[in-house]
Amino acid sequence: MAPDGDDRRFTVRLVNFEGPFDLLLQLISKHKLDVTEVALSKVTDEFMAHIRAMGADWDLDQTTEFLVVAATLLDLKAARLLPTAEVEDEADLALLEARDLLFARLLQYRAYKRIAEIFSDRLESESRRYPRTVGLEPQHAELLPEVVISIGPEGFARLAVKAMQPKAKPQVYVDHIHAPLVSVREQAEIVVARLRAEGEISFRELTADAEDTLTVVARFLALLELYREKAVALDQEEALGDLLVRWAGGEGTEPVVTDEFDQEAREPEEDVQA
Question: CA 69, CA 38: separation in Å to the nearest integer?
């Protein structure tokens, strides 16, 4: 056993065979060499010596492949040692089937290894097909195109003035999205008329004909104004239940509802220091 040149391939030297380990597998798979005639223990010893000779540069993939193949050959050799006479029971038949499976595994290993070699060769050849990209040579990099300017100093000045001018702030008009105001005083008149006619009514029924949310809010504010004037009584039997509204004002009296909620909010005036 010795490393074969730069490839450092594993070479086997036996009584009946001398050559690369791959050739030994090829002869066994083609039935040109009986596995029972191969001293696997000597092959293993030579492989261990081969690994020691490689030192720190030993190949993990090669070692793994050898262990897999050696285990397969060992099982195959054990199966071949069965008697070739007529099979008497199912146990012997199972052993023969196992022997065939081991032989098929050996063939499969050789096929995968061959395909891996083909892929490796293709990758190596394709890696040389496309050259590496390099930068421009100095004499070419210094060749700059001629700059053609079609604008004079006055044009540059106009562009500079335009660029320096502040941009106008965008204006967004929101007048179209504001809903019309609802008068609390007008809604109070509607509430008073309903209560005088029905005496007692729930707030849900009182706002059933409201067109929008603003109208509901305006009627609720009107109820608060009427409650402050003691013109209505409010009652709620349970939490989050219906709010009952009962008329408590006189027949000839008109409750006073201020226009506090109908006035637009004014911005507070800033104090001006003299």
Answer: 14
